[in-house]
Known about the structure:
The protein has one helix and ten strands, in the order H-E-E-E-E-E-E-E-E-E-E. It has one domain (15-190): Porin, CATH 2.40.160.20. The chain starts with 14 loop residues before the first helix and ends with a strand. It is elongated and about 50 Å long. 28% of the residues are buried. With 191 residues, it is mainly beta. Strand 2 and strand 3 form a beta hairpin. The strands form two sheets. The protein has an eight-stranded antiparallel β-barrel. The chain has one helix at 15-42; strands at 46-58, 64-75, 82-92, 97-111, 116-130, 133-149, 155-164, 169-171, 174-176, 180-190.
Amino acid sequence: MNYTAASVRVPRMGRMELVLSATAVLLRGFVGALLLFSAPIAHAIDANLHLAFGLTAERGTGDGRFSGTLRGDVGEASWFVRPELSLQYKEAPLFDRAETEISAGAIHYWSSERYAVHLGAGVTEVSFRFDGTDGSSSGPYAHAGVTWPIAGSHFVLGFDGRYVWAGDTTVRGVRHPVAYRQIALLLGWRF
């Protein structure tokens, strides 16, 4: 066989395939988070699990995208900061662009009976597919928000704002911003 003449053609994903792929990533993250949080729950350690649905605007261009995020944190109530992990998916179907983002950082809560305010920061890795080309960028992030318990239960509803300072990347000689700001609706559970 002549391996030097071989070529590989990677098919472009259609919109429905991208949605199914994003759904699969979020479901895997959700199941992983449930497994991750099962041990702290059994040992009376506090845990928060949030689903966030938001709008993202890129720095410089203001191009908007829809995003879905799965974020969780664990720790004792007495800890000043807790470790947090998040998995995010963003899509811009008009521009054939999809991004996944994995973040690790720390979060602090100021809680009362009526609401909880949070502030978090850390590092993130953004991987993207743009016009058939893959790339990535990393950088720091910060986010803040507020949640309210619903009818005294462990279910919470709130808002979160996030800013990412990831560096720009170049695809086929064109520079694209990766940094963004985001506002999201939070649906969460406190264990």
